[in-house]
């Protein structure tokens, strides 16, 4: 058993007969009344996100998890196949437990969170950012440079990302996997 003081991003807890992962949290100490913790929880079975508030000192049941490094191999319909980096054992995971499946490139290394008690995979943690090549982008129009003007671009995984007007086909860009947004152009 843990308490609200142990809450951190990535912590897996049992809540409402399901296993949730804490995505965001905020300790709030109002001037009047007791302190509390505002959290955003993601269900590891359904993928639904919900907001919940825990009062200070509330006991929460944490889930013992292990993380293992896996390499993404290929997708087959809604199933994504991964290989363990050390044992070379392969597993197939459903698309809904991945945070950003459309940004996953073959050969990418990810961390798979596994329930230590049941040996069931719970979720896949992507790296903070990925570098992908732009396969299609409309040409930027000269003089069309209002502040923060963006255009849609398609990357090699098939995902669509809004990028600045100066990005062209063939450019490699860095994408934030948490938000799916453009970060910067990568020079090689």
Automatic annotation (TrEMBL):
Q: Where in the cell is it found?
A: Cytoplasm
Give GO MF terms, alphabetically: translation elongation factor activity
**Record's keyword annotation contains Cytoplasm:** yes
Q: What is its main location?
A: cytoplasm
Kindly indicate whether the keyword Secreted belongs to this entry: no
Q: Where is the Translation elongation factor P/YeiP central domain?
A: 67-122
Name the CDD domains for this protein: S1_EF-P_repeat_1 (cd04470), S1_EF-P_repeat_2 (cd05794)
Q: Which UniProt keywords apply?
A: Cytoplasm, Elongation factor, Protein biosynthesis
Annotated Elongation factor P C-terminal domain ranges read 130-185
Pfam families documented for this protein: EFP, EFP_N, Elong-fact-P_C
Protein's pathway: Protein biosynthesis; polypeptide chain elongation
**PANTHER family named in the record:** ELONGATION FACTOR P (PTHR30053), ELONGATION FACTOR P (EF-P) FAMILY PROTEIN (PTHR30053:SF12)
Q: Which NCBIfam families has this protein been placed in? A: efp, PRK00529.1
**Described function:** Involved in peptide bond synthesis. Stimulates efficient translation and peptide-bond synthesis on native or reconstituted 70S ribosomes in vitro. Probably functions indirectly by altering the affinity of the ribosome for aminoacyl-tRNA, thus increasing their reactivity as acceptors for peptidyl transferase.
Q: Which family does it belong to?
A: Belongs to the elongation factor P family.
Which HAMAP family does its entry note?
Answer: EF_P (MF_00141)
| Name the record gives this protein | Elongation factor P
Organism annotation: Flavobacterium rhizosphaerae
């Amino acid at each position: 058993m843990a308490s609200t003081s142990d809450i951190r991003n990535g912590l897996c807890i049992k809540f409402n007969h399901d296993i949730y992962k804490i995505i965001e949290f905020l300790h709030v100490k109002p001037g009047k009344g007791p302190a509390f913790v505002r959290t955003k929880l993601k269900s590891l079975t359904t993928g639904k996100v919900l907001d919940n508030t825990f009062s200070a000192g509330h006991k929460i049941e944490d889930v013992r998890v292990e993380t293992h490094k896996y390499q993404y191999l290929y997708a087959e319909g809604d199933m994504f196949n991964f290989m363990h980096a050390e044992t070379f054992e392969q597993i197939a995971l459903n698309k809904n437990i991945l945070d950003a499946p459309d940004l996953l490139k073959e050969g990418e290394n990810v961390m798979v969170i596994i329930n230590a008690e049941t040996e069931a995979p719970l979720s896949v943690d992507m790296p903070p950012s990925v570098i992908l090549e732009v396969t299609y982008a409309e040409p930027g129009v000269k003089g069309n440079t209002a502040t923060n003007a963006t255009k849609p671009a398609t990357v090699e995984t098939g995902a669509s990302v809004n990028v600045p007007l100066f990005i062209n086909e063939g450019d490699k860009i860095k994408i934030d996997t948490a938000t799916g947004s453009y970060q910067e152009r990568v020079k090689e």
